[in-house]
Hints:
alpha+beta
Amino acid sequence: MNESITRNADARRIQSFIAAAFRACGMPEGNAARMADLMSEADIGGQDGHGIFRLPQYIRRIRAGGMEVDPKIEVISERAATALLDGGNGPGHLVMSRAAEIAMEKAETTGVAWVGARYSNHAGPAFLYSRMPLAKDMIGLYVAVGSANHMPPWGGTDLLLSTNPISVAVPSNARPPVVLDMATTVAAYGKVKTVADKGGTMPEGWMIDKLGRPMTDPTKSAEGLLLPIGGPKGYGLSLIFGILAGTLNGAAFGRDVIDFNADPQTTTNTGQFIVALNISAFADVAEFKAQVDEIWEQMKSSDRLPDVETIRLPGERLAETTAERRANGVPIAPALRERLDKLADELGIDRL
Length: 352
């Protein structure tokens, strides 16, 4: 078989492989299963830089002592509609799953709840958590401090900011939920790394060098600066999100952010927060969902510019990709498959 060709892997096989890798590192069965569920969900949803792609990195951090496999996640401050968690230096997937559970529990009675976290870690794509409240007919909002600084303040060259993503998920009836999931940079750094894996080049506008010149070679991304969306507006969003998800929670922000790509040992103290908003506190749930469907129809039926085939809404491509990959599998680039094979051999588990 030609190993230079990207091949698909069944989503269930990806899930079982991830769980086996974590178990081999001493992670309890329940935690390993939860990590595998969420990481494979990222792959199925098309977030190729945040699913199994991250597994070797997570395992490296665990084996170096930089992340706990069975963290003690504690509520350290709490009021009726808020809570602050200490994630015990656990994987962000476990920490923010618990944060979402608490937010939904509180929002049942308070109408809205905000739960922040400190001493968490990288948690994969933001949509994983914003979508959780949908199961309770709630709107979800998630924000995180990125796990490495790749962006300077507007006009500067010092790497003091990260991609600092935001995701908002809104339920509907007949249509897929509206799910906004975006970095405050033009491209997430994980996307840069996946382009490098595939031997591609970056479009101009993703990164610049320290002289302000466009960069298109993803293999040299460590020397470059990610650009914010909307120029200074994206910088402003990244700054505010960092204060809310990092500083407010007693988590790292600015110069305190640890580059988890380069340093597998130091505690990252990653900060995140999730908000659950109970629709019934504001509107009839069924009526609201019907109105969201109507909004879908309005956006989709708008007159289009020349050469625009269709108007898309946030979450539409996610729904399409999820359906396609559940049926046909997840593409695994040769460079990633090679790393996963090496990891499997090191851990003594079956290859993907």
